[in-house]
Amino acid sequence: MDILRISDLHLGFTIHGLARDVVKGVSLRVPAGKTVALVGESGSGKSVISQAIMGLLPRAGAITGGEILFRDPLAPENPIDIASLPAEGKEIRSLRGGRIGMIFQEPMSSLSPVHTIGNQIEEALQLHRPTPKPEARALIEAMLKRVGFKDPARAFGLYSFELSGGLRQRAMLAMALICQPALLIADEPTTALDVTIQAQVLDLMRDLQAEMGMAILLITHDLGVVANMADEVVVIYHGEIMESGPVEDIFRRPRHPYLKALLKASPHFDMEEGERLVALREARPRPPAAPRPAETVKPSGEAAPLLSVHGLRKAYTTGSRSFFGKGTQHTVLAVDDVSFDIQRGECLGLVGESGCGKTTVSKIVMRAVTPDAGTISFDDGRAQIDVLGLEGEDLRAFRPRVQMIFQDPVSSLSPRMTVMNILREPLAIHDKGSGGEQTARVKALMEDVGLDVRFLNRYPHSFSGGQRQRIGIARALALDPDLIICDEPVSALDVSVQAQILNLLKDLQAERGLTFLFISHNLAVVNYMADRIAVMANGRIVEIAPRHALFSRPMHPYTRALLKSVPFADLDRKLDFKLAAPGGASDASHWAPAFRRDPEGEALTHLALGEGHFVLARPGADIREMA
Amino acid sequence: MLLKYILKRILVMIPTLLITSALIFTVINLPEGDYFETLSAEMQAQGEKADLSRIEFLKKEYGFDRPVTERYFWWVAGLLQGDMGYSFEYQRPVREIVGDRLMLTMIVSFVTIIFTWIVAFPIGIYSATHQYSWGDYGLTFIGLIGLAVPHFLLALVFMYAANVWFGTSIGGLVDPQYLNQPMSWAKAASVLEHLWIPVIIIGAGGTAGMIRSVRANLLDELQKQYYVTARAKGLPPGKALRKYPLRMSLNFFVSDIGDILPSIVSGAEIVAIVLSLQTTGPLLIRALQSQDMYLAGSFLMFLSFLTVIGVLISDIALAILDPRIRLQGAATK
Q1: What ipTM goes with this model?
Q2: DSSP-derived 3-state class of residue A63
Q3: Which chain A residue shows the shortest CA-CA distance from B130?
């Protein structure tokens, strides 16, 4: 039996008096107790469909045709056509939250910060199933326990900002499922979470589905998640269904060119050395066999590294400070004894989950944050510069050497400046050339990133995410830096655009002999980009190794957990969900004793395993035995 | 947790008030000369022979032969004991002069704040939930008129209208026969009869501004994901609006209380003069003109005190309203 059957659905939006169809005749079904994945990129109309099912379309949007039949297993003989219900009527409201639950991408903003978790869950319960207070409380606590809260009685009274991202999403699940809906709509439920947390939440969703028998409509752009979760797959592109069918057919025998291209555009672990991602559209024509300058890659040890970071340490103090100085203060070591070198022309990947300190490291290198201890030396070709000791004019002269590409292409470009002004600003700040020279330089930069120079007078809002990120790259290149710090440069982009940006970065690196510090939480992306990879957990680098060594012989339990949690877009390599540690992979108490700090013994050190492979462990531990 | 927070806020008030008092005293002492010089100059200009020995005596009496810092400390010490000093012009203690007016000022201010909120909130909510409708445009237009018309003009029009249609006496907050009378039911009724005019006039601009802020804040909050979540639960729109976005947009207004209190007390002087209200505004202007320094200084000090109290109230209300402030408390460094 199909819980949900959408046939020939048309959705239109009216913006500035112009009517536009965003969903053009979509048909799909969600069978009872099964998971159907709706896959597509941003703007494909997948979220709008979910809004239409919930009757939550924005004011400008409307259903212009077709039907959405919801067949409640409790009353299978009279299906309801949601498309024909009045938008704020009683019928649709009793379905919403009662029979159809929904969870969203951003667990932080989806929960009200000023109401307790318990209050918000109870509201959903009382609305659809009025229950006396004490019983309601017991029901909710049981639900909270089920979704993984260790102390449900306490969790009931917590606020969302007191929870981690993973726990927030669990609370959302509890809220969506408290009324035992027949259908759960999950709109990118794990996109904002770290990989290990993602594996846990996905696992929880599967368990709950097996227990409660609800159907899941999973909306996502991540083919890895789809391969691990879905029974059936529907691929949507520009408001039209490209391909749909059982997951086996879709992954083993993709027919539609779009789906084939999408599968090829996602970076994966089995890529050959030098293999190139196939972007749906390249940023620019490929340069004719760009020769990588021979001197760029030197075996480590021969020349002085471009950047040498040693013993960085940065502590943040949080918690309430009482008026008289003392109080419940917590000191968090955001960065703890971090050391690494980057050779000229190399790409060092820095991997870790949110909160591990990787962004703080990048800010310290940029001289935006001052560390408590440590040294950074930078080789500008003539002399070693003590980066942390720079002041005044020296610091200003150093700034152009290191530039940054940011994660969010929307907020990292000022909406009030034209592209011309954005790209010219760094040149103007550092007095590079006359006005005419600057304009010529800006035009050359636009060509370098494959954008039309006619776009220079436009404002950022008229560009897509990928184009904006290319503007960000052009800005970082403007001052001819030696080192570019890429802070999650593709994590806000769609898969197809992601491949385009990654290829562009690779080409630019080869042409200009750039050096990258590439920060990401996505191991597949780092695998594609980096020569060497450093893995960070709890402020420390736990393992650093050349790329192939890290992926073929990971030593540290944290690295292994990370590698095991990445969902592959491959049906033959499904995630082993049960491996993930309950407290997250960075919870050191689950690591083998050799990797934990011995309270009495010596501090942990980096043990050399040869070929530039180091792992953080107790001195004298026999790592080989554990491998 | 909350108690500690409140205690901390109160402790912070002490240095704030000390610094303000020093600033006020300095500013008041900045102009050339003092009240006595102004007085003798005025007397000479009017052809009277200044009684120099009397002025000398007064100067000594009030400590004007001492250094400024010493006078400052005596003033602060007096304030701490509730002694606001002595007004030269009125020849009476400041407390007596200000006392009556303070009561009236606080009544006017308080009623004005309530009036502003009662009018602005429903209109703002309507405007936000019916964005770009005719109702939204119409109410916005009326609000903008209220913001644009000068207050004193509005005051004159209202006074005239009230006198012609309701026979209310021109100006003042009470009928003349109750002036300087002890409070009685009849006097209270008379106050109420006069009160609505200044409340509407002083409140008009504030109301218009507040409608705009309610609308803007609520529009922001309506976009937020948690409102979608609330509706996805099946909450009726009205209930979802009240529980989530409205509550969040309250933060803004509560944190505004600190500004509202003193601005209404001190911002309405011109209207108060036009309407000849026996509030504190006109008194302050006159005192500043004649360099009646203890009157002006103590009064300004009172305004600062109101500000600080207002901020305290809004801080406490915010802490009660928003758990993020209560639980995360102090800023993270």
Answers
A1: 0.74
A2: strand
A3: A59
